[in-house]
Each structure stands twice: as C-alpha cells, then as structure tokens.
Amino acid sequence: MMRRRIPVLIGFLWLIVVAVMAVATGGDWPGEPPRSVYLSDSLEKGSEFEALYYEEELYAVLTPSSSEDGEGRRIVSLSESGEASAVTPVLELESGGTVSTLRMTRDGFYLTVILDDGAGAGVYFVESENLSAENLTAEETPEPLSLALMSSMEAGEGRQINWAAYEGGVLLTWKDDGTGAEYYEQAMADEADCEQLLMDMGQEANIRQFNMICYLVLLFAGWLLLFLVVRFLSNRSYTVYAIVLVELLLLLVTAGGVALATMSSRNTARTETDRYSNYYISALLVEMKALQPLEDFEAEGFYQSDTYEEIYSLLSGFLSDEGTGEVFTDICILRQEDSSILVSASGKNGALLATLYGEDAELLEADFTTDGSSVYTLAAVRGDSAPGLFAEAESRGYLVFAVLMFLAASALCLTLLLVRGSELRKFSAAMLQVSAGQEVPMGKAVRSRDVAVMWNSLMELQKKIGRINYTRYRIFESCYRFAPKNIEKIFGRDSITEVAGGDTVCLRGTVAFVTLAEPRGASDSCAQQLNDFVTLMENHMEESGGYFVSGNADLTSLKLLFTEGEQDGAEFGISFLRELYAKGALADLKAGILLHASSFLYGVAGDERQSFPFLLAEEKAELERFADWFRRMELRLVVTAEAGAQQKPPGAIRFIGYLCLTQSGRRLDLYEMLEAYLQAERKPKTETLERFEKALELFYQNDFYLARNAFSDVLKVNPMDHMARWYLFTCEKYLNQSCGEGDICRLRCEG
Fold this sequence. Notes:
Elements: H1 2-26, H2 35-43, E1 47-55, E2 57-64, E3 74-78, E4 84-87, E5 91-93, E6 98-104, E7 108-115, E8 120-127, H3 134-137, E9 145-147, E10 149-154, E11 161-167, E12 170-175, H4 181-191, H5 201-207, H6 209-235, H7 238-289, H8 306-320, H9 322-327, E13 328-335, E14 340-344, H10 353-357, E15 362-369, E16 375-382, H11 392-435, H12 449-482, H13 487-490, E17 504-515, H14 524-544, E18 547-551, E19 557-563, H15 569-582, E20 592-606, E21 611-616, H16 620-632, E22 637-640, H17 641-647, E23 653-660, E24 667-673, H18 679-687, H19 689-700, H20 704-717, H21 722-735
Parallel strand pairs: 5-9, 20-22
Antiparallel strand pairs: 1-2, 2-3, 3-4, 6-7, 7-8, 8-10, 11-12, 13-14, 13-16, 15-16, 17-19, 17-20, 18-19, 20-21, 22-24, 23-24
Helix pairs in contact: 1-6, 2-5, 7-11, 11-12, 14-15, 19-20, 20-21
C-alpha cells in the first residue's frame, strides 16, 4: 500500500512545485521584467513602446517591432491596469525619425523625434480628438493621420542630439557636449513612475499565456517521467535496469566532461578577455595621453576644440574595431567623483553612467590626470556576452564532440546489452513454451557460454517432460480403455487419477438400459459381433454426450447415463438402433433400449488395486427385467413417462401400457418410440397406431371381448406386432376366467 502512495505523493509535490514556480513568475520573482514590454504585448503581440508619458493615465507610442522606420506608430491611452481605453489612427510622420519623448497638454500630444541619426530634432503635434475609443472597436481600419513638423532644430556643426523633449513650448535637447543632460536625468526619473502600474488578471493571463503553456507542459512532463520511472521500477527487468544505468552513467560522464571543459574554457576565455581588455584599455590610454596638449575635459569650449574631436575619433574608432566592438558596449571618460560621462564613443555625454547602463554594467577602469591635476577614469562598458567571445567556438566544439561520443558509446553499450538481452528473452520465451507443454525447436543460435549452458539444461528438461507426458498419456489411455470413459466428469474431477474407491455422487438424469440377446456359442464371430456392437454404441454415445456407467460380463445388459438438461438419450437410442438394424451382421443381437429418468447414486467401489463402478436406484433391478422382456417382445426403444418428459422424443410414439413397481407401488407409463424402427418396420405400426390405441382403451375398460377383436384386427395388418399379440393372449386368458387377482391390466413380464 505504501508503494502505491509514494508515486501519488511525489506527483502531488511536483504539482505544488510547478504551481509555486508559476506564481513566482507571475509575481515577477526573482527578477523584475520590463513592464512596458509586457504592457505592449497585452495590446498587440510583437509590439513595443517607443515612448511613455504618465499624467493620471499612461500614454504611449506603440510601434510594431517588425516595422521599418517606425511605420505603423499609434498613440494609445492606458488605464492603471494597463487596459487600452483609446487609440489614434496610424501616424505618418513627414520626416520620420526615432521617437524620443511624448508629452501631453490640454490641446493634444507633442511627439519629439531625433532626425538624421542625431543631426537634428523635431516636434509633431497630434490633436487630442484623434485619440478615440471608437478606433478600438471600428470594423474598418481608420485612415492614417499625416503629420508635418511643427518645429525643428539642428544639432549644430560637429554636434549630435541624443535626446529631445518638448516642454512648455520649448524644445529641450541633450547634446553630445553634455548640454541638456539634466533634462534627460529628470525625464528618466519621471518615467520610472510608470513602472509602478499594475495589470489586471485578464491581462496577466493574456501576456503570460505562453508561460502558462510551458508550465502545463512541464507539469505533465514531470508526471509522465514519474509514470515511466514507476513502470521502470515495477517492470523488474534487469536488462532495462542495465540499459538505464549505463545511459545515466554515460550521460553523467559526458555532461561532466563538457561542463568541466566549458568551465575551463570559459575561465580561460574570461582570463584572456580580461587580459586583452586591460591591454586594449592600456593601449587606448597611451594613445590618448599622446595627444598634445591633453586639455581639461571640463574646460570651457572643450567640446568645440580639436582635442575633443581627436579624443572622440580615437574612442569611436577604437570601438568600431571588429575585435573590441564585440567585447565593449561603450568607451567613455568619467569624472571620478560622480561617474558622470564627459566623453564617450556613443556621444551620450553629460549623463551619469548608472542612468545609461545601470548598476550592473561590468567596467574596466584606468585612472589618469590632466594638466589641471583633475582625476578622471577611462572606463569601458562590457556586455554580458563578452566572455564568450573567445570560448563560443570552443564550447560548441566540446558540445558536438560530447554528443558524438555519447551516441557512439550508447550505441556500443546498447548493442552489447541488447544482444545479451535478446538471448535471455529467447530463453525466457522458450521456458514459457516448455512450461505450457509446447515443444521448443533445437539448434538455437547462442553466443554466450552461460546462456548456452542454460539452453542445454532446458533441452534436457524438455526431453524428460516429453517422456513423462508420454508415459502419462499411455497410462491415461489404458485407464480409459478399461474404465468408464469420462467417469471423472460425473464426479466433477479434473482427471481420472483423482477418482478413488468410495467416491459417490447423487445425480439426476436418464439411464438407458441396453439389452441384447446372448450370443450363441463362444466363437470368434460372436466376439467380433460384440466388438462391433460396443464400438457403434460408443460412437453414438459420444455424439449424444452420454456416459457409460456399467455392464455385466457377457455384455447382454449395459447401462448408459445422460445427465439432466445437457444430453439427449432419446436421440442416442433412435440413431443407434437404426444403424444397428441397418447392419445385417449385427441385427441378430436383437438389441433393445429402455429409457427411464430418475435420481441415481453413482459410485466406485474398491481400492488402488481394483475398482468397480456401480449405479444404484430403487427400481433398477425391476426395470432391467422389463428391459429384457421388451427386447424379447421385439420392442426397440421404450421410454417411461418421466424420461419422455425430460428427453422430449421426436416422431410418432404409442402408449403400450404401464407397470407397477413392486417395492414402491409407483406406476410407470410406458411408450414405444416408432422412430427407432427402419422404414419397413415403422410403416405397419404407424398405420395401426389408432387401432392399437382403441384396443388398449377397451382393454383398460375390462371389455376383453371387444379388445380381443381389436387387437386381432391390428395383427391382421401387422402380424409382427408382438405387443398386440401379448395383449390378445391376455384378453383370451381373462375371457376364460370370471375374475383376476390384483391389477390385471398392468404389464407383467413372464419367464
């Protein structure tokens, strides 16, 4: 019971783990995701926000991420839950550009853009009436809204605009000479408030539906893995255990090798990257110090000087190199006391380093001084992928080599295990066949010595089992030849060997008393007649489902049993007697059958040395005498009323009288089945059937005179009707007597 509960408990714990992971991810743990990206995906898949503005509601510029030059921009209004409440038509900007900021006033929206890669900045105005909720539900796409520049400005010769915003009717810009950086810093602080907005459950579900699918797949994958592990453990196949163990060991070895090689390669790569990065920075610092004179970076007019141009060219040229460009994100000169950017290869001067690149940017720093004795830092911002620059190709090579080695080793091990496992499976199948009594062909191809020894042992065992089965078959055959066939079925046993002396069973059915004339003499021809008779009786008995129960020594009296509800004694008697009298050589036996249904006690008397079957019934002895008398009266098949009710004999029958049992005084009505005669013998009895019944009716009325005349008429048509002749003589007997003793109308066997 505990073994069954453990998998259920593990499956329940796995459900809890996956649920905790899903809830943790839904709660933005362990890291804070970019909220603006989530909000844009909740509105339109594959979109992003170029600019945000918060004033009681959140306004944003929504742009398809796949568009070129900002095509398909729209301004959208969002509630605090992130639900879109209104949207503008698609904006077509006169001069294009990269969106910098979005500002809202009472009249409408001011959209500032950076033109010509920072050479200028411009402002577009969008009236507030263009922002409508109807655009969200419109069946047809609204016409695009064409916008012209409301105002613009140039960066100036040698200058670059990094950011622009339209505030209070003034176009504020942040240039590469550091002017306007304070506006940018303030704008970044204001936009940070937008990240505090929350989404409702519907938007969370819409945004995270892919994550939900992934967690469902993870959940069912874990359950499937648990099911396979349970089946694997319950299978108890050592071949499977060996395969799984070998595969796990190979996987651990190869994975460990790849991990160690990758870690070593990455450590080497990081060391190389650090070494080369320091070398680059040192070389750059040497080149920068070679500039004469090295002016103070904070001196007035520095950004208009030739020195700035030379330093900027030196930094941007250094970053544009293919090798360093893959390692570094930006190269800049910082004021050491506050990490403010003074000169950078990106041109984003005047802002704080943390504002642009965050607190986690990996820096390589080199301090130096100018003639003004101010301390500065030459800093290189390195991205997260930088350490993989030297190790990427090597790691891929390790992985490919490890996969190939794992597949080769797995193929080799699986081949060896499956070859051995196939031999064991064949041997196991052969053992099942032998245990089921089937024969296994010799000459199995066996490669391993230990399995070959087992095969030889199995073959010897099969030979012994064959000899034992042959001996048992001969014993059973002998038992069936000299014992009643299927006697074990009467006793409800599986084998005749289970039947022992003293076994008895009380059953109800129909007993066929088969009698025949005693053979004349003791010649071989008489013996052959008896053999043919028994063989014929056995064949018909098997077809009708009867059992042979007992017989006397000279075979003149035999008893067969037909159990109630399953077998047909009447059908046996009809088919057997017809074929018997159709064979002229057997007709001399003058066989007859009496069928009677009652309760009998059947048993076996004796011990292991000798046993005899017996059948006991109250009326058996008297019925045996009448059965022989009916045979002498040349009646073929006689049935009692009880047997007729159970067997339902087919064809024409005639009532021939009744007899009274001596011990119990019971009356048994008797009927003759005419279907047991051949056609030539059946025809006259069928023609005189009504006359015989009328004569018998007169006989029972004690009108022996008229009954005698009626039986005489029957004999005129059918002189061989011995039953009518017996009734005729009986009528003659009582006509000459004044009265008779007892029941004078019953049948009496004489002699």
